[in-house]
Amino acid sequence: MFKMQFITGLLIAATAVQAHYTFPRLVVDGKSEQADWWATRKTKNADSKQGVENAASPDIRCYSNQNAANTITVPAGATIHYISTQQVNHPGPTQYYLAKVPEGKSASNWDGSGNVWFKIKTTTPTIDNNKQVTWPSQNDYVLTNATIPAATPDGEYLLRVEQIALHLANKPNGAQFYLACTQIKITGGGSGTPGPLVALPGAYKSDDPGILVNLGTIKPDSYVPPGPAVWSG
What's the half-sphere exposure (Cβ side, CA atoms, 13 Å) at 7? Predict the structure, then answer.
């Protein structure tokens, strides 16, 4: 009896891990990073795959335990996405942020602190042909595409992606944040003024309507993702 319970417990744990994911590779105009965690900072959940559940935690910024060894060049106007280690099967939005590295720092050593982050992409749900609520990139092995705005000034940045899993978000700290940050250098950009600028942590509260939400009771067109407005240049 004990042996059966033990095996069942292991199977449940394994299933839970398989239901979670990380984003170890950025893809720029169809070309992937050379290897996992090459320019993307390795996240604390690289093995466990467990998401961040506290929106006020310092881990909400990059969830990283080490900086990456490299910085990847990304042209302004490029199409980007991330590869996932598992199928992105949890419902919820995908959001992309950028933060410009200040003078005297580099993407390889800056921590991304302060009111420096601006959003360049978010997604919202739709109703499919079967009248089911669905999200861009749900059940795929890649995240939805985003475009680096053409007006983004040249320089080094941290690029941050998050997929917010909302399947348990009807209770406080039930939303799960799966995220990654990549060290990038934007070239061929413009003279735009990105904003609004926010801090992470700081931009989100656990009771924001896009974080504490019951997906079974809302209409898809009423969902509002957390964070600032999107800057498109």
Answer: 4
Identify the three-state secondary structure at position 159: strand
Q: Give the whole-angstrom CA distance, residue 54 versus residue 106.
A: 28
Query: What DSSP state is assigned to residue 134?
Result: E
Which residues of the chain are modeled with pLDDT < 50? 1-17
Q: Determine how many CB atoms are found less than 10 A away from the CB of residue 50.
A: 16
Structure tokens at 100: 């410009």
Alpha-carbon gap, residue 66 to 38, rounded angstroms: 12
Long-range contacts at 30-38 (CB < 8 A, ≥ 24 apart): 30/79, 32/83, 33/72, 33/182, 34/70, 37/68, 38/68, 38/69, 38/70, 38/72
**Backbone Cα Rg of the chain:** 18
Q: What is the pLDDT of residue 130?
A: 80
